[in-house]
Amino acid sequence: MTVIRQDDLIQSVADALQYISYYHPVDFIKAVDEAYQREQNPAAKDAMAQILINSRMCAEGHRPICQDTGIVTVFLTVGMNVQWDAEMSVTDMVNEGVRRAYNLPDNVLRASILADPDGARSNTKDNTPAVIHYEIVPGDTVEVHVAAKGGGSEAKSKFAMLNPSDSVVDWVLKMVPTMGAGWCPPGMLGIGIGGTAEKAMLLAKEALLDPIDIHDLQKRGASNRSEELRLELHEKVNQLGIGAQGLGGLTTVLDVKVKDYPTHAANKAIALIPNCAATRHAHFTLDGSGAVALTPPKLEEWPEVTRQSGGDVKRVNLDTVTADEIKTWKPGDTLLLNGKMLTGRDAAHKKMVDMLSKGETLPVDLKGRFIYYVGPVDPVRDEVVGPAGPTTATRMDKFTRTMLAETGLMGMIGKSERGDGAIDAIKEFEAVYLMATGGAAYLVAQAIKKSEVVAFPELGMEAIYEFTVEDMPVTVAVDTAGDSVHKSGPQIWKAKIEAENINVS
Q1: Which of 165, 273, 357, 394 is the 20 to 30 A CA-CA neighbour of 292?
Q2: In angstroms, what CA-CA distances link 423 with 201, 394, 418, 430, 487?
């Protein structure tokens, strides 16, 4: 019989969440580096360089890989011989570990969890509650898998109840292009097949906990249907040419994981959940000897990567930029932004649009300004701001026409693609949309030299800030003519992969 003490579980969960906030799994680092070395599209290659540089910086600075420090998901496998020396329930212990981790003063993590999700949507302020899954098995230990899932990747989850004769491969290849780039590829796809609807989703999420080992599988060959699917999907998804950050390129997925479960004769449940470029998870075992100490990766595990800035890089002064100047920018151009920008996400946009509909004056003047879609992590120590990477821009699409038509906004900065409606509005008002790299939040934050809340302080991380930036790297994603790199890039690279028979696996 093993006795597990209350504080050992609490502290182990807290330590694991801190650990995964700033350490990528080593298998992921090596897989991204390999993809970086092989990439032929300069824009996608630069995005992966930023991801790798950011990853090393976070490991050194013990600050979050991504500003979205996630919703906590915990898988607990509890041995039947375990006894608990505890006053709390196991669920309460896990949540206390989450609370302790997210409020650690040296590395405060962003509280992203909202209660009453279809009503008040009030922030719980400590990122609780976690989503917890239990399995009770023979044994004397407690195995714990801890993961932090960001909203961008979770938002792209897909589910279908296929007919028994339908093709899983066809469905996945149909779904992946519809996911856009908001899940920050290159990453992993977790696929669950069978069981019931909720079981398929759980299988897909569990699959993402496994290490990246697709090249080992390629060498030894498939031994079952799940492994056959992994090999086929890894190659065919990469042949889509979506590439890093959706910019077009050779690597969209680093691995594909498949788990299955017996199912009803009439059904074929299928779920797809991606892991993003900020993939974060850890595994540990409690055996009664105390809290677990996770061993950090050695810095030598990270490659020495330097961004290769070409001659087409333009330095831009946001305080003086003109409408005529932005008309010269083309999709795929790299810009270094300097000067002042405003921030604003979903809640701020909703408030501004509601104010405009009532004829009220906005608390900030947006005419000729750029707005950055970001909800930063709170600063610690001598930081101006915590990790401040972009959020998925499509969530702001519903507000874009109003913002451009009624405020004189000149440009927007976010992550991934824009929808057709937003692109039409950008073209009509001759505005521009720029893209910062998702999964490089700490690196991006180094460009922010001053930060001040200027409106809606009650919204917390969703308040409107004014950032002063120096050489903040972005890519022109939609130009004033409405041309989108997220449409043209994958098309170009899909055709190139096919025409030149490029090996993408």
Answers
A1: 273
A2: 33, 10, 6, 10, 11
Q: Is the CA virtual torsion 99, 105, 110, 111 positive or negative?
A: positive
pLDDT per residue as tens digits for the range 321-364: 999 999 999 999 999 999 999 999 999 999 999 999 999 999 99
Catalytic option among 145, 281, 349, 486: 349
Separation CA 359–CA 371 (nearest Å): 21
Give the residue range(s) of CATH 3.20.130.10 domains in the chain.
Answer: 314-489
Q: How many CB atoms lie within 10 A of CB 336?
A: 16
pLDDT at site 311: 54
Q: 314-489 adopts what CATH topology? A: fumarase (3.20.130)
pLDDT score, position 505: 86
User: What is this structure's pTM?
Assistant: 0.95
The number of CA neighbours under 13 Å toward the Cβ of 439 is 34
What is the largest distance, in Å, between two alpha-carbon atoms of the chain? 74
Which amino acid belongs to residue 479? D
Query: H-type helices in 243-394, by residue range?
Result: 323-326, 346-357
Asked about 486 being catalytic, the answer comes back as no
Span 108-126, average pLDDT = 95
| CA–CA dist 440, 184 (Å, integer) | 10
Topology (CATH) of 154-277: 60s Ribosomal Protein L30; Chain: A; (3.30.1330)
